[in-house]
Design brief:
mainly alpha, Rossmann fold, DNA polymerase, domain 1, 3-stranded mixed β-sheet, two-stranded antiparallel ribbon, nucleus, DNA repair, magnesium ion binding, magnesium, PIN-like_dom_sf
Length: about 350
């Protein structure tokens, strides 16, 4: 779950929620009530926090820091001369997750009796280890890099608010690779080519072009060789682009094995009075709501058994006829696109010829 998303989304009148003492509480509000909603649906969550970022990620983090500094300047300017919408837009872009935010969320989870793990580096990589070992059903994240870390199942939109009405996406890695007709290493190369947390994408290369390049050449080494030897110089590899290091981070990330003692976890009964002390007395939450939520959580922990996700978000497999129909529609779409491209080229050629005759 992204603490950042709560700091951005959980707001009142465009501003983050604050306690009476001026402390931000949006992250706690989001974590508390979203976790309750998950547990209410019979799902027993395990949270994984990021550890120290890999060195290769420092460039991306530096860019994010620069963008936030720029947004801070734009935010101050908007407060002087801009509209309310501009002020809120730039305010959201200045949000930073601090060490204190992380520590408070961990304290909250302890009091709720919800287990969590702090990963050595990337949380998504640690989630993938636990999912492969069968300790959890899936990894829930909005980061598609989770699949490159070899998580068998990725869940997206699991923690979205009900107002967004986004359906839960359940993505299976084996079916994804089968559909793309490539192995995992090629999939990693494809993701690197399109840009990831460690490297920028190659300019002018979109999803369709990247997929074609990997299919035609097999590996990123061959793709780079093709691009650099192309006399037309259609694409250009960035100067500092250590794609082999990025690939290594996906293939062999710094993680704890699933049988490591630090990966042992269990759900406990919530500390109701501890939650009241923290959320009500220290952070200014409504006591009746906190006690009611804590009692509901206590009841769910006692009675609920871990349920398969299909029990709440039922997946309906496509029939063979439906699969054939989808394939036919895709082929027709491709054929129509090719036909349109030829017609456009013909029209362009005829227009050019007419212009030449008129001149």
């Amino acid at each position: 779950m992204s603490i950042y998303s709560f700091l951005v989304a959980v707001r009142s009148d465009g501003q983050q929620l604050m306690s009476d003492t001026g402390e931000t509480t949006s992250h706690l509000m989001g974590m508390f009530y979203r976790t309750l909603r998950i547990v209410d649906n019979g799902i027993k969550p395990l949270y994984v926090f990021d550890g120290a970022p890999p060195k290769l990620k420092s460039g991306e983090l530096a860019k994010r820091f620069a963008r936030k500094n720029e947004a801070s300047e734009q935010h101050e300017e908007a407060k002087e001369t801009g509209t309310a919408e501009e002020v809120e837009k730039f305010s959201r872009r200045t949000v930073r997750v601090t060490r204190e935010h992380n520590e408070e969320c961990r304290r909250l989870l302890r009091l709720m009796g919800i287990p969590f793990i702090v990963a050595p580096t990337e949380a998504e990589a640690q989630c993938a280890v636990l999912a492969r070992a069968g300790k959890v059903y899936a990894a829930a994240s909005e980061d598609m890099d989770t699949l490159t870390f070899d998580s068998p199942i990725l869940l997206r939109h699991l923690t979205f608010s009900e107002q967004r009405k986004e359906p839960i996406q359940e993505i299976h890695l084996d079916k994804t690779l089968e559909g793309l007709n490539m192995d995992r290493k090629q999939f990693i190369d494809l993701c690197i080519l399109l840009g990831c947390d460690y490297l920028d994408p190659v300019p002018k290369i979109g999803p369709n072009t990247a997929l074609k390049l990997i299919r035609d050449h097999g590996t990123l080494e061959k793709v780079v060789e093709f691009i650099e030897s192309d006399p037309k110089k259609k694409y250009a590899i960035p100067e500092d682009w250590p794609y082999q290091d990025a690939r290594e981070l996906f293939l062999h990330p710094d993680v704890r094995s699933a049988d490591d003692p630090e990966c042992d976890f269990k759900w406990e009964a919530p500390d109701v009075e501890g939650l009241v002390q923290f959320l009500v007395n220290e952070k200014g939450f409504n006591e009746d709501r906190v006690r009611s939520a804590a009692q509901k959580l206590q009841k769910n922990v006692k009675t609920a058994q871990q349920s398969r996700l299909e029990g709440f978000f039922k997946a309906i497999p496509k029939t063979e006829d439906q699969k054939k129909d989808l394939k036919r529609k895709h082929e027709e779409k491709v054929a129509d696109a090719k036909k349109k491209k030829k017609e456009d080229a013909k029209t362009k050629k005829e227009t050019k010829a007419k212009a030449h005759l008129n001149s």
